[in-house]
Amino acid sequence: QVQLVESGGGLVQPGERLRLSCTASGFTLGDYVTGWYRQAPGKVREWVAGSTTVGNANYAEWVKGRFTVSRDDAENTTYLQMHSLKREATAVYYCRAGREYWGQGTQVTVSS
After folding, report:
1. pLDDT tens-digit profile of 64-91?
2. Computed over its alpha carbons, how large is the radius of gyration of the chain?
3. Residue 31: helix, strand or coil by DSSP?
4. Residue 76 backbone zone (phi > 0: left; psi -120 to 50: alpha; other: beta)
């Protein structure tokens, strides 16, 4: 079965860190440009970060060094490590592979 599954979301306090995972099945994740997106309540989905097939990462300007994208080809998984989380990071986070595949999303809530 071809799918992307995100995990790792949860409730954290402002300033804390969280690592999201996105595991592919049915295809090789490294063959695709991947991206992380998020959608906050009442807002449109926005791009957060991405990675090329050779592993070069790029980030939305507002990330400002607080997030890191990585990929483990053996696990067929991409990760989004988030540091110094702010309340406005509260959103559903999605991963995407190429144009074809989206995950179901994982909820991140930053609240004290």
Report:
1. 789 999 999 999 999 999 999 999 999 9
2. 13
3. helix
4. left
